[in-house]
Amino acid sequence: MRILSGIKPSNVPTLGNYLGAMQNFVKLQNEYKDADIIVFVADLHSITVPIDRQELKKDIRSLAALYIAVGLDPVRTHIFIQSEVPCHSELSFVLECNSYIGEMERMIQFKEKSVKQGLTVSTGLLTYPCLMASDILLYDANYVPVGEDQKQHVELTRDIAIRFNNKYGETFTVPEPLIMKAGARIMSLQDPAHKMSKTDPNPKGYITLLDDINEAKNKIKRAVTDSLGVVKYDKENQGALANLMTIYSNLSGLSYEEIEKKYEGLGYKEFKEDLAEIVGSTLEKIQTKYYEIIKSPELDRILDEGRDYAYSIARKKLSKVYKRIGLGRN
Ligand code: TYM
C-alpha cells in the first residue's frame, strides 16, 4: 500500500496545512508500519500564480525541513522536491491530452483564483489538476491524505485514471482521497467564512508554523468570536469559536465535550489564553527541530535519497504510459 501527498511551498505552511495535512501524514506514518509513504514539496504548483523567485527558493527548503520538524521520519517516509523529478511535468502533458477543458474549468480552486486574477490568470493554473493527477498516478498511490479543499482534485484524478485505463488498458491505480474529519478545513482567525490560507492578505487571519511564538499567541487572543460568551461547539451559530475549538481539540487531544466542560462558567478570555499557550508550545516544539535541520547537510542527503527513490518509480511508470499510447520508438 502506498500513501502519497504534497504541499505547495508558497509561503510557510499554516496551522491549517498542519492540521488538515501534515499532522495526518505523521499519524499515517506511525500507524501504517507497512505502508510506503511519499511526501513531496510541490514546487511546480507554486509557479501557477506569480511568485518571487527568492521567496520560492527559501520556501522550498523550508517546507522540506518542516516535514521533518513536524515528525516525518526520513527513514520511514521518502521526501523529495517535485521539480527534481521531471516525470511529473512529462506525464502532466499526457494527462492534459486525456482530460477536458470543461473538467478543468469546473474546479472550484481555479474558479476562485481566476476570479481574483482576471485576465492575468496563467494557463498553468487551469491545467494544474493534471499536474496534481500526475503527482499521484506516477506512483500508483492508493491513498492521498489531504484537506477538504483538495478533495475535488483527487476525485478528478480518479476520473482521469479510470478513463485512461479504459482507453489504453490497466495502467494506473485509482487513488482514494483520505480526509480526516477533524481539522480538514481550518478557517481564518479573522473571518470564519473563509478557510485559513497562507495567501490571505490579512496576516492576522492565519498562523504559520514559523511565526514568532508571541505573535502567534496574540493572533489567537485577538481571533474574532461572537457575543454569546459560552464555550460551546455550535458551528452554525458560533462558527468562529467552533473553529478555535477544532484547533484546540486537535492540538490537545481533548474532545469538544471535554473542552466545553473545562470552560463551563468561564468566558472566551480563559479559553483563548489556554489555546494561545497550546498553539505556542506546539510551534515551539516544531521550530526547535526545524532550526536544527534547516542548517544541517543531512537535509540535502534526505532530499537526494527521496529524489532518487521517486525517480526510479516515476520513470518506469512514464515509460509504460508512453508505450501504451504509442509514443517514441518502442
Ligand atoms: P496546498 O499547498 O494548498 O495545501 C496543502 C495541504 O493542506 C490542506 N489545507 C488545509 N487543511 C485544513 N484547513 C485549511 N485551512 C487548509 N488549507 C490547506 C490542503 O487540503 C492540502 O492537503 N495541490 C495541492 C498540493 C498537491 C498535492 C499533490 C496534494 C500537489 N500535488 C498530490 C496531494 C497529492 C495544494 O495546493 O495544497
Structure description:
With 330 residues, the chain is mainly α. It has 2 domains: 213 residues, HUPs (Rossmann fold, 3-Layer(aba) Sandwich); 89 residues, Orthogonal Bundle (Tyrosyl-Transfer RNA Synthetase), CATH 1.10.240.10. It is 55% helix and 7% strand. The radius of gyration is 21 Å and the shape is globular. The two termini are 30 Å apart. The structure holds tryptophanyl-5'AMP (TYM). The site of tryptophanyl-5'AMP has 24 residues, from β1, α1 and α7. Tryptophanyl-5'AMP binds next to β1, α1 and α7.
What's the total number of strands? 5
Terminus-to-terminus distance: 30 Å
SS field, number of helical segments = 13
CATH class of the largest domain: Alpha Beta
Order of helices and strands: EHEHHEHHHHEHEHHHHH
**CATH fold-level label of the largest domain:** Rossmann fold
The best one-word shape is: globular
Profile the largest sheet: 3 strands, parallel
With strands numbered from the N-terminus, the spatial order across the biggest sheet is: 1-2-3
Q: Note the beta-strand portion.
A: 5-15%
Q: Per CATH, which architecture of the largest domain?
A: 3-Layer(aba) Sandwich
| Helix vs. strand class | mainly alpha
